[in-house]
Design goal:
- By secondary structure, the protein is α/β, with parallel strands linked by helices.
- The protein has two domains: 221 residues, Rossmann fold; 47 residues, no CATH class.
- The protein is built from ten helices and eight strands.
- The protein has an eight-stranded mixed β-sheet, with helices on both faces.
- It is globular.
Length: 282
């Protein structure tokens, strides 16, 4: 049985709440994992994913900390969004190393915009040696439209049932055509300008790309086959030489589970994620 205990984490004058999973077996005691939660979620995760992941890794000998960002779950403060979560992530790494003195380097594990936050963070903290990015959030209006065209219309246009339905229902055919043209226009539009944040910060996509290029550790990307967020990420890599160089093989290992949903809602899918993570950080 693994040991689980609550931790109070101080971040910018606010108290964050986390759960530390201490391993009982003698495994990889020098490397710990910090789960960076995507929003709006808290430390349990959809379908208890983060709880089950942490227990699985702790059973294999790795200490894991999952925590609530400021303003989420049981943590104090106001939620600032994933773009401004760096201070909370640093505080969580500090807390993990204070609680587990043998942990010298850390793997950040993030889902959706939690993965984006982890990638933006890594350039400022040499303690991070590994990244697990699960369905990273890289969304723009044009990217969403392209992902929809690729994932939805691409599948529909190959379906005989779709064409039979369109032939039998002119109003449905008109509605489908209008939606297709609307998404096509969005997909072809000029890329959105960088969003200006406080103090002239770069857009989150630019910051993610800088983090990917600056990071010298190991990266594992896990993707769901039935997920628009993952599809948009794949399309970004296909279209951009910069992104493909930063997060493409052989430096980055990418694994995909074709039938899985965004949050890996079935046990067999969650087990796949846990096993892939454990093998990667071993």
């Amino acid at each position: 049985m693994n040991l689980e205990e609550p931790l109070c984490i101080e971040s910018q004058g606010e108290r964050l709440i986390g759960i530390l999973h201490r391993p009982q077996t003698q495994g990889n005691l020098t490397r710990g994992v910090v789960v960076v939660v995507g929003g709006p979620q808290y430390r349990i995760g959809s379908h208890r994913q983060f709880v089950l992941l942490a227990r699985s890794l702790a059973a294999r000998g790795t200490a894991v900390l999952r925590f609530d960002l400021a303003g989420m779950g049981d943590s104090n403060g106001e939620f600032a969004g994933f773009e401004r979560s760096a201070a909370d992530i640093r505080a969580a790494i500090d807390a993990l190393q204070q609680a587990e003195r043998n942990v010298r380097d850390v793997c950040l594990w993030g889902l959706c915009d939690g993965a984006s936050a982890a990638l933006m963070y890594v350039r400022q903290d040499p303690r991070v040696s590994h990244l697990v990015l699960v369905n990273p959030w890289v969304s723009t209006s044009a990217g969403q439209a392209q992902a929809y065209l690729d994932a939805y219309y691409g599948r529909k246009l190959r379906s005989p049932g779709f064409w039979r339905r369109m032939a039998g229902d002119p109003s449905a055919a008109l509605k489908a055509a209008v939606g297709f043209v609307s998404n096509l226009r969005l997909a072809w539009q000029v890329p959105e300008p960088d969003v200006e944040y406080e103090q002239g910060d770069e857009s989150f996509l630019a910051r993610m790309l800088v983090g990917a290029n600056a990071f010298r550790g190991r990266i594992l990307v896990l993707l769901s086959g039935r997920d628009m967020v993952a599809t948009e990420f794949e399309l970004l890599l296909e279209r951009s030489d910069e992104w493909r160089h930063a997060l493409g093989p052989p430096r980055v290992v990418t694994r995909k589970l074709p039938e899985a949903s965004h949050t890996f809602s079935r046990q067999v899918w969650r087990d796949w994620v846990a096993a892939a993570t454990a093998d990667f950080i071993a």
